[in-house]
Amino acid sequence: MTNSTRLASVLYLGSALAIGVFAGSLNLPHYSRLEARGASANARVTSTDCGNRGTVAYRFRVDERTYDGQGNAGFGIPACGHLKPGDAVLVRYLVADPTQSLPGDINDRLQHEWLSVVVAAFGMPLIILFFARRRFRRWSGAPSS
Questions:
Q1: Residues 41-74, buried b or exposed e (16+ Cβ, 10 A)?
Q2: Is the pTM of this model over 0.85?
Q3: What residues make up the domain containing 9?
Q4: In total, how many domains does the chain have?
Q5: pLDDT digits (tens, 9 = 90+) for 96-143
Q6: 125 located within any domain
């Protein structure tokens, strides 16, 4: 293994780890808490804003209290354009804090998020290394391949 191959491997692995930790820290902790310490409830759509990432606002009741929340549609509930005020949707909320909730199936969200983190962690460093290699070859005067 040449020094440049070894350096590229170390840069790739370091970048993959850094991107994976960063991307994984965005939504995975929240989704994991909802999955592990949450409960499901039926909610009613109060409004939609499909132009804003498919945002759905909803209202649900837990222990005789009413809570409002919002999140993006999909993940086991219809797409935003198919929802209207009054429609029933499933939400997942934290038992200890029902103000923390999301619409849809939390397992679908977790699977989608894990896939996104893995693709970002392993794909982005390849793109970065590709362009870095081209730029380095241009600077060094070597022919680019």
A1: bebebeebeeeeebbbbbebeeeeeebebbbbbb
A2: no
A3: 3-140
A4: 1
A5: 999 999 999 999 999 999 999 999 998 988 888 888 777 766 666 555
A6: yes
Tell whether 145 is covered by a domain: no
Q: How far is CA 80 from CA 6, 34, 99, 144, in A?
A: 48, 22, 22, 47
Residue 77 domain-assigned (yes or no): yes
- Indicate whether 111 belongs to any domain: yes
Buried b (16+ CB within 10 A) or exposed e, 12-23: eeebbeebbeeb
Find the DSSP H helices in the chain: 3-37, 106-140
Residue 74 DSSP code: -
Residues facing 55 on adjacent strands: 49, 72
